[in-house]
Specification:
With 155 residues, the chain is of the alpha/beta class. The chain has five helices and five strands, in the order E-H-H-E-H-E-H-E-E-H. The protein has a single domain, classed as 3-Layer(aba) Sandwich (Rossmann fold).
Length: 155
């Protein structure tokens, strides 16, 4: 059985590779998506990859994931530090949630060090660049495999 993972990206990540490359690197969001698709295939996962600059759209995808996804990998970008609404939507999702940040938010401006999303996340990966998404997919695969019942009903 295939398992679907939503990889959700917040505002300004469409500018990845162009905006502040000294912080976020030269990798584009298309590069990240390609690497995620390869990693998902290795783990037998289906992938839905989205980016938006609109908070309501991010929330709509989280709501959609309730019925269509086994897990969420989310880089909420600036919504990390501002959106109780994103947190509330994630609280209504039953599967694993892994929060990803390309930069190390704890070494940046003080306002970036607080994450509303971390209150729901089953794991947080920060400061690993685009590789953080791959680490998140590895973790999701592990969590989903651990939750899968063994064949024959034996445990």
């Amino acid at each position: 059985m295939r398992r679907t993972v939503f990889v959700l990206n917040g505002p300004n990540l469409n500018l990845l590779g162009k905006r502040e490359p000294e912080i976020y690197g030269a990798e584009t969001l298309a590069d990240v998506e390609g690497a995620c698709r390869q990693a998902a295939a290795r783990h037998g996962l289906d992938l839905r990859f989205h980016q938006t600059n609109r908070e309501y759209e991010l929330i709509d995808w989280i709501h959609e994931a309730r019925d269509k996804a086994a897990a969420i990998v989310i880089n909420p970008a600036a919504f990390t530090h501002t959106s109780v609404a994103v947190l509330d939507a994630l609280q209504a999702f039953a599967g694993p949630v892994i929060e990803v940040h390309i930069s190390n938010i704890h070494r940046r401006e003080p306002f970036r060090r607080h994450s509303y999303v971390s209150g729901r996340a089953d794991g947080v990966i920060a400061g690993c660049g685009g590789q953080g998404y791959l680490l998140a997919l590895d973790r999701v695969a592990h969590l989903l495999d651990a939750a899968r019942p063994m064949a024959g009903g034996q445990g």
